[in-house]
Please model this.
Amino acid sequence: MSIDFSPIGTIHTPFDDLKGMPIQPSGAKDVKGIIEVFQEYEQGLNDLEGFSHIILLYHFNKSRGFDLMVTPFLDTQKRGLFSTRAPRRPNPIGLSIVEILGREKNKIFIKGIDVLNKTPLLDIKPYVPRFDTKEVSASGWLEQTQDDSVSMKSDDRFIEKQS
Amino acid sequence: MSIDFSPIGTIHTPFDDLKGMPIQPSGAKDVKGIIEVFQEYEQGLNDLEGFSHIILLYHFNKSRGFDLMVTPFLDTQKRGLFSTRAPRRPNPIGLSIVEILGREKNKIFIKGIDVLNKTPLLDIKPYVPRFDTKEVSASGWLEQTQDDSVSMKSDDRFIEKQS
Model:
């Protein structure tokens, strides 16, 4: 069973290359980007400026294939794929929560973005603390290392070698 | 440009009908469900039990079409679609953060689920406070009403009439 999606816009960021890119918004706190939604969807952005944060869902369009066990950036041993945020997944959908700086027509100016330039955008949702902030009792293999995400940079391990 | 995804499993919940379903996990705190991932992906669930919460991305497979301005459950006036969590969207991808109770092979037992029974699952990601908990300064039109999501129930407004 196949599900067909189409981008609703493009995420513009300073990162043309995976090498050196932050691995999470937590490491890209001051990095600015622009979301450009296709003009046919502009009206759907109304009221979004009222929120300080939004959830972006996007297509990891440079990722090919996947492995069920992967060594994440923040660990040295292999972990089950779905316990990681690795971009090579059966459905390569990325999720980042970013801050809104402002909006002009079909462009949203954002801060704290950690994706490649020209990433295809699939959806925008408002970040709502009542829905999206959870008091966790455990963070698994990331318990000790999640704070390292602030300084950790990406490499090309999650792009399948194509030749 | 079309992007092809396929479900990686199914979300089983007590809700066979939209009417009376909680509109957010915040209103379904004690509702239990089972995620059944197709066996070919079972190994990818390793290490997930270490996390208390996971992010589910799924396909709103009962939603047809979309409007750019919608009246959300928690409001009485029309809002821009992307400032809402309405299921009728250009790419009908749903997002819920739920609690893990346990795992048995390819099944994950969860709590706090607010989706229809047999919803096709697209992805599972670990919920990581460092990445996913944000201190917001504004929650837009939901500022006053997000707490009402605890008691608000769904109706069929977001299923397009098909006849």
Chain A has a mean pLDDT of 87.
